[in-house]
Structures are given as structure tokens and as C-alpha cells.
Design a protein that fits this description.
Strand content: 15-25%
Number of helices: 7
Helix content: 25-40%
Radius of gyration: 18 Å
Mean pLDDT: 92
Low-confidence stretches: none
Strand order of the largest sheet: 3-2-1-4-7-6-8
């Protein structure tokens, strides 16, 4: 396998900024590679906007984070049951991060609690965890690793072309799964611990019992689920389960880091005046 540089990616907007900050902070803390490689945060001013203040917050988490506005005319076409899900189109940007040996994508509603870099050793074209829902017929695309065989403008356009003009609640996941199957690409299915989908607070996961049992093996937590069914951890009505308390502790730490960073920057500005 090509052992060149890797890039880590996510999608953000003003509505998920707290999730993004926690993800990026936990990622750079738990995964050594993420501190030594580019980390790219995609947004779009129409479908996934980020204010200047939130852009500044993101870039204070670590020195290697880049904000990239992702644009493609297909992102704005077609119908969705819920327009807030349109930002999921930006997940496809992972496929056009050319020049890297691997692309690692994570959703902004995730928390890294252990190093998961052993999964980078996979020789498969695509590496991911099977989805909790849909009877496990699809791979969950909230966390995946692309080897460079799938990182090209051609693959990007092929995947994008598989999104129907009339979509339900899902955008990226059905298209990526269809793309992998139709082209017979090689896939490594990771154990559930790498993208842990059994976090309490979803109709399919009413409590944290399974999370507590699996905790010693879990690498990342994922508050997966569409708006209206899953309460995200930054929302005021998030259930006070052990998993949420873990996320809240990380949120407190990242805010302390950001506050210190901004305070130090202010002092430097005063000295330079």
C-alpha cells in the first residue's frame, strides 16, 4: 500500500459547531496521525454555512486544520424530505482529496475515545463499519477510510451521479454503498467499536447498557440518526446518559483550550500594538 500522507475530513456548519469542536479536539488527542496530517473541514455558505466566529473557533483547536468551501452544482439540485440533511452532500468531498494515500472521513457528531489508526493498515479500497439500521444491509458512511484507488475526480463524479433527484432522508450512504457494489471494489468491514452506533438516545437504542458493556473496546462514539429521531449531544434535551457525560467532559476541555488560545492571542496582539 502507498504509505504517503493521509488527510482527515469532516463536514461542519453553524448548527453542528459544538459537535465539530469536540470531534476535532478528541481526534487530535486520541489519534497521533491526526496531529501530523492535514485535517480538512468542509462547509458551504448556502447549505452548510459557517460564520466567521465559528471558523475562528475551529482553527484554534489545532494548527493543522483547514477550512474549505466545497461547491458543486449537484449539491443544490433535487428534493429532500428535510433540507437540513442537504449538508450530507459534502461527505462526497472525501473522494476528491487527491494527492493522499488515504482519506479518513468522520461525521461531526462523533467523539474519539481511543486511537483507531490500526484500521489504516487495511489494503481494501474502502473500510467502514456496517450500519446499525436498515437490517445491516449498508455500510455506515459516518466513518470510513478510502485508499487512493477511490480518491479521484472520476470516482467523485461516479458517486455523485448515483444520488437520485428525489431523496428521502439519506444522501451519501445509499450512493456510496451502491457505488462500491456496482464496481466490485474491495471492502474491509471493521468491528462495531470503530464507529460505535449504539449510543443511547435513539428509538433503536433507548439506553446506554450496551455502550457500558462495550466501553473497553470502543474507539469512537457516533450519535448517528436523522434529525427528529436522534437528539445530538449538544442539544439541551440530550438524555443524561454516561455517553453524554463523556461528550460533555470533552466539550468542557475544548472550550478551555479555545479560551486559553484566544486569551494568549489577545496578549500577543496587545504586545504588538
Amino acid at each position: 500500500m502507498n504509505t504517503g500522507r493521509r488527510v482527515f475530513c469532516t463536514v461542519s456548519s453553524d448548527s453542528v459547531i459544538e459537535g465539530t469542536l469536540v470531534l476535532l479536539y478528541s481526534l487530535t488527542r486520541q489519534v497521533p496521525e491526526a496531529s501530523n496530517c492535514p485535517v480538512r473541514v468542509f462547509y458551504n455558505r448556502r447549505i452548510s454555512p459557517l460564520s466567521q466566529d465559528n471558523m475562528r473557533l475551529i482553527t484554534t483547536v489545532a494548527d493543522n486544520i483547514d477550512l474549505i468551501e466545497a461547491t458543486h452544482e449537484r449539491y443544490f439540485r433535487g428534493s429532500l424530505h428535510d433540507e437540513t440533511h442537504r449538508a450530507a452532500f459534502l461527505t462526497f468531498e472525501a473522494f476528491r482529496q487527491t494527492g493522499f494515500a488515504q482519506v479518513i472521513y468522520l461525521d461531526s457528531d462523533m467523539l474519539c475515545i481511543r486511537d483507531f489508526s490500526d484500521c489504516f493498515e487495511s489494503d481494501s479500497d474502502f473500510t467502514a463499519v456496517r450500519c446499525r439500521s436498515h437490517n445491516g444491509t449498508m455500510l455506515n458512511t459516518g466513518f470510513f477510510v478510502l485508499n487512493n484507488t477511490l480518491v479521484s475526480n472520476d470516482c467523485f463524479e461516479q458517486v455523485l451521479a448515483l444520488v437520485p433527484s428525489e431523496m428521502g432522508h439519506m444522501v451519501d450512504q445509499p450512493a456510496i454503498n451502491r457505488f462500491l457494489i456496482s464496481n466490485d471494489y474491495t471492502v474491509t468491514e471493521l468491528p462495531r467499536f470503530y464507529n460505535y452506533l449504539y449510543v443511547g438516545g435513539h428509538p433503536e437504542v433507548p439506553g446506554d447498557e450496551r455502550y457500558l458493556s462495550d466501553l473497553p473496546k470502543i474507539r469512537t462514539l457516533h450519535w448517528a440518526g436523522r434529525i427528529g429521531r436522534r437528539v445530538k449531544p449538544w442539544e439541551a434535551n440530550a438524555p443524561n446518559y454516561p455517553s453524554l457525560r463523556r461528550w460533555k467532559a470533552e466539550q468542557k476541555e475544548v472550550h478551555e483550550r479555545i479560551g486559553q488560545h484566544l486569551e494568549n492571542a489577545g496578549r500577543e496582539g496587545d504586545l504588538n500594538e
